[in-house]
Design brief:
Shape: globular
Structural class: alpha/beta
Largest sheet: 9 strands, mixed
Number of domains: 2
Distance between the termini: 62 Å
CATH architecture of the largest domain: 2-Layer Sandwich
Organism: Amycolatopsis cynarae
Protein name: Gfo/Idh/MocA family oxidoreductase
Pfam families: GFO_IDH_MocA, GFO_IDH_MocA_C3
CATH superfamily of the largest domain: Dihydrodipicolinate Reductase, domain 2
Number of strands: 19
Keywords: Oxidoreductase
CATH topology of the largest domain: Dihydrodipicolinate Reductase, domain 2
Radius of gyration: 21 Å
Number of helices: 12
CATH class of the largest domain: Alpha Beta
Strand order of the largest sheet: 16-15-14-13-7-12-11-10-17
Strand content: 25-35%
Length: 369
């Protein structure tokens, strides 16, 4: 039974705390302690029980000496806390995006290798058998020659989403990179999944990268964005997403092949190939990490080493000019909700035609002849 410490238990990390409770009941792990700076609510206190709760992660690690550390804290803290886990000699499960700069990722990889430890990332979609099946179809040529891969994602967030933390919607905070944009955080899975389907996960697998970063709100980061990249396989990948949808829909990865078409709804583990839909099982990043530690022959589904292509995209977003503001006449606001009417059709066309917003003639994006 492996001893686990969790850093971050009040926000996104609450999901890990619940899962740890289930795994502890099953006899797979022992929750050794929790690092949290906020006061735990009733559910949190019940789940943690009499285990230590500390605000200082290095002190907690020294006190508990865990086998595994989970870091599910704000993006700007990832690098520092991940290093604390590794310095304590524990294996690491690090939430996505792993770190907000390519150089930090490269340095973290070196630390993991030098320590002889294992690092898994929290890209939940990569644990889906639907993703594995689609990647196999692409790899084996069963869909024919690829015209490209398109992704559309239409979610909606209220103003409260950007008030939840000081780093929310920021490109930087206190002079340090954050890169909390639509492409790199809420739709990070869309980018990582498309790259995995193409078999292009290495840092050198991204040959070129075009970006259109837009924002409807008065924030630093993008909330409506289009990415077009070309991989070493020659595949064109377009990811078109928004957090200002009028009609929300789960994101879909579309693979355009000369002999077939596939659509993957990665949040639902649904794969549709030529009109036939199948639901697949998935394994969580934590369960996969535990299985790998028990038997190294079990591959990690989301290893730190396999995030190179994603980090190239994140770095491009980090270094890109500030997102352009969409003129207010195109935006609809109702209370704390902000919508961009017509965006759903633009996203669908981008994924189908592998085109950018400007090329599609989106009225708020201008026109390129």
């Amino acid at each position: 039974m492996r001893r686990v410490v969790l850093a971050g238990a009040s926000g996104y990390g609450r999901g890990y705390l619940r899962q740890l409770a289930e795994l502890e009941r099953a006899g797979r792990v022992e929750l050794a302690g929790v690092c949290e700076i906020a006061e735990l609510d009733a559910e949190g206190r019940e789940l943690v029980g009499d285990r230590p709760v500390r605000a200082d992660l290095p002190a907690l690690l020294a006190e508990t000496r865990p086998d595994v550390g989970i870091v599910a804290t704000p993006i700007p803290t990832h690098d520092r806390l991940a290093r604390a886990v590794l310095d304590a000699g524990a294996h690491l499960l690090l939430e996505k995006p792993p770190v907000p700069a390519l150089a930090q990722w490269q340095a973290l990889r070196k630390t993991v290798r030098d320590r002889g430890l294992v690092c898994q990332l929290g890209f939940q979609s990569l644990g889906s058998e639907a993703v594995a099946r689609l990647a196999a179809l692409v790899r084996d040529g069963e869909l024919g020659h690829l015209r490209g891969i398109g992704v559309r994602g239409a979610w909606s967030r209220t103003d409260a989403y950007y008030r939840r933390a000081a780093w929310a919607g920021r490109r930087t905070l206190d002079g340090q990179p954050v890169v909390d944009g639509a492409l790199t955080n809420p739709f990070a899975h869309a980018v990582a999944t498309a790259l995995a389907v193409d078999g292009s996960t290495g840092v050198e697998d991204v040959v070129s990268c075009e970006l259109e970063l837009w924002r409807c709100r008065d924030i630093e980061a993008d909330d409506t964005s289009c990415l077009r990249l070309r991989t070493r396989h020659g595949t064109v990948i377009v990811v078109a997403v928004t957090l200002c949808a009028v009609e929300e829909a789960e994101p879909v990865v579309v693979v355009h092949g000369s002999r077939g078409r596939a659509e993957l709804a990665y949040t639902e583990d649904l794969l549709t190939v030529d009109g036939v839909t199948t639901r697949f099982p998935r394994i969580s990043p934590l369960e996969n990490l535990l299985s790998h530690l028990d038997d190294p022959a079990v591959p990690l589904r989301s290893a730190l080493d396999d995030a190179g292509a994603f980090m190239r995209v994140l770095e491009a977003v980090r270094l890109a000019p500030e997102p352009a503001r969409i003129p207010g006449r195109f935006v609809r606001r109702e209370g704390e909700w902000v919508g961009l009417p017509g965006i759903e059709a633009v996203l669908a066309q981008a994924a189908e035609r592998l085109a950018t917003f400007r090329e599609l003639g989106a009225p708020w994006a201008g026109w390129l002849p």
